[in-house]
Amino acid sequence: MDFTRRIANFLFGMECLGCGSSSERLDPWLCPACRDSLVNGGKEPKFPGGDVLSLYPMVPLTRRLVHALKYGSIPGVASYMVRQSSLSRGGDAVEFLSQFARPFFFVPVPLHGARYRERGYNQAEKIAAAFAGATGGRVCRWLWRKNFHVSQTKLSKSQRAWNVAGAFGAKLPAELPPRGTVFIVDDVFTTGATTSACASALGHDFPLPVKVCTLIYDEPATAAMDFVADCRMEWDGNYGD
Ligand SMILES: [Zn+2]
User: How many whole angstroms separate alpha carbon 236 and alpha carbon 38?
Assistant: First the structure.
């Protein structure tokens, strides 16, 4: 049993990260039913805006997994979600990426230093590593975060844009690769404010095309609307019974 699994078992008592049920058949994060549900959701990745790939829609299950990745000290969830997605299993995500020039450079959205120390890792780096592993690309830490900013979660779209504009700086290698595609990597794509700010930080004369990859896509909405969406999911589930 690997170290992260033991930590998770300690923290979560062998419970499925999706439904919370105790199961002997966790793989290691989800019970078979939740994993099937994740794989099914991953068959329909989202492409908000055409230049963005989000491996999953935001539903209660994917939200819980990303929460465990960010706040539950379970970095292994990043590669787990990529492995269960249409990127690793063949599907729309593979087709989407096939239109872009290789090699692929995955640039994680940087975490502020204080949050990095508190969390011990940057979840976007874990996701970038998983994307790189699945596509034969590489992780490039070409961005840094300038200032401490308020958590995005509770802000409106305009507040978010203001909150992150100018928040990032670039630390590019002396010689950039002559060809390929850069993907800014984050956990969630909502309004695109964060990834746009990252792309801007690379500079207007940045020579490579810049796209975006995230684990999940959340409709631009306030936290309250997210809550309503969660309730609707449960009602929809009941209609099927
Ligand atoms: Zn479950």
Answer: 17
